[in-house]
């Protein structure tokens, strides 16, 4: 009787372990790749120096320099992918992603206003966070009845989605106005932030705390998310606290989106294609899907950022453009395979 759960647990551990190794490999590739490459033979000594707090060789210095940006890319990609998993579970819509409710657009308004006023980088980050939180609170107030769940789960999801789209449109109108009056010297930085850029990102502890707490929440509620996905109308009768689950998914996915956008700008497609790819490869069980999406999303964004800073070096491309160029054909391929 215990053979099936044991086999499922072993499969989950195997998937997560393989993705963890792939994520670590992506971080190593990011550290080794650049205008000056770090050769494989130099890695053991360079890593040993970093572990002991020393940077005596050029290889160790390059790894330390690139590690901060790679870690920001990883935590941002993991947050976006996990937010996408939660948003798709909340809205029961395969096209949902972390930006569909307008939280990213609110962050864009805050960040671009700070850039327009030529504020310091820390003020830009704070303004982006304030914008994202403001839109989240407004959306919650407007759609709090829909977040209670109940029998009309589909209708509630549609109302929540529509409210988010309207708020996003209003925020993007403000963004367009700011871009139209911005001086030419500031347009580049404003456009790069909107597309998503990790060039000036610095590692911070808070995004990791947010990601770890959100992943713990997702794993704790994975069974409830599975039941809600399969039996939405009957979830309450099966013992699921639908209202609490919907509110939790909304708040946690909004927090993840705000954390990522504040760190790296509005990077698209990661929260859309990574959950779909993991669901397609590993199945819909959120106990496996949530950690898989975090690891796959983090590794994917690290590799995309490595391409963005090396493909036409020394010119650095916005990483959001790379994720879109890769994400669009991948998503179309997944859609074709699902319909075939």
Q: What's the total helix number? A: 13
CATH class: Mainly Alpha
H/E element order: HHHHHHHHHHHHH
What characteristic shape results from the CA principal axes?
Answer: globular
Q: What is the mean predicted local confidence, pLDDT?
A: 84
Give me the secondary-structure category. mainly alpha
Poorly predicted regions: none
Helix content: over 70%
How many extended strands? Answer: 0
Distance between the termini: 36 Å
Query: What does the main sheet amount to?
Result: none
Could you tell me the radius of gyration in angstroms?
Answer: 21 Å
Number of domains in the coordinates? 1
How would the blueprint of this fold be written?
Elements: H1 3-32, H2 43-51, H3 58-91, H4 103-116, H5 121-143, H6 153-181, H7 184-195, H8 206-220, H9 222-230, H10 242-264, H11 270-282, H12 286-310, H13 319-339
Helix pairs in contact: 1-3, 1-12, 2-3, 3-8, 3-10, 3-11, 3-12, 4-5, 4-6, 4-7, 4-10, 5-6, 5-10, 8-10, 11-12, 11-13, 12-13
Tag the structure with descriptive keywords.
single chain; 340 residues; mainly alpha; ABC transporter involved in vitamin B12 uptake, BtuC; 13 helices; 76% helix
Describe this structure in words.
The chain is mainly alpha-helical and 340 residues long. It has one domain (37-339): ABC transporter involved in vitamin B12 uptake, BtuC, CATH 1.10.3470.10. The protein is 76% helix and 0% strand. The chain contains 13 helices and no strands. It has helices at 3-32, 43-51, 58-91, 103-116, 121-143, 153-181, 184-195, 206-220, 222-230, 242-264, 270-282, 286-310, 319-339. Helix 3 packs parallel to helix 8 and helix 3 (58-91) crosses helix 12. The longest helix has 34 residues, at 58-91. The two termini are 36 Å apart. The mean pLDDT is 84.
